[in-house]
Amino acid sequence: MAVQIALIVVVVVLAVVVGAYALGVYLRRRQEDRPLEGALLPGRRVVVAQATPDREVNVVVNWLLSQAFEQTGIRVADDKLAYDRIISAAQKAVAELKQQEAADISLPFLTADASGPKHLEARLTREMIQELVKY
To answer: What's the whole-number mean pLDDT along residues 20-41?
Structure first.
């Protein structure tokens, strides 16, 4: 009887350890996938009946992250301060595009590496944001 109880305890502990490990792997992968960088993956199309301002801001944030990665070679989403600056720039750009045809985005000293500071310069037009919202 004692052997059976010990065996059950071992199996339960093993199940908890394996479950915790699997949860950790899942959470790490999920964090690595956030946010999209490098490419906007045109093959993944999302049908949106009407774009909301939040959707537009999110799309611009992802676009700016991909632009920053292309221009600097650094994943700026891992840097909290740089990521917050990109969100602010995206919100400002979306607001500007309601008034103008294009918005110039300039984020000097966005991040840095061993070679020095990295800057982000981008121009976003209404047509570009309409295309980005389609995906």
So the answer is: 59
Distance CA 128, CA 60 (A): 10
CB 123 within 8 A of CB 105: yes
Q: Which residue has the tokens 């093959």?
A: 43
Q: Tell me if 134 sits within 8 A of 42, measured CB to CB.
A: no
Q: With a cut of 70, say whether residue 51 has pLDDT above it.
A: no
Q: Are 32 and 110 in contact (CB under 8 A)?
A: no
Average model confidence (pLDDT) across the chain: 80
Q: State whether CATH 3.20.20.70 applies to domain 53-134.
A: no
Q: What pLDDT sits at residue 74?
A: 86
Residues 6 or more apart in contact with residue 100 via CB below 8 angstroms? none
Distance CA 62, CA 90 (A): 9
pLDDT tens profile 94-119: 999 989 999 999 999 988 888 889 89
Tokens 């840097």 identify what position? Answer: 79
What is the Cα–Cα distance from 99 to 97, expressed in whole angstroms? 5
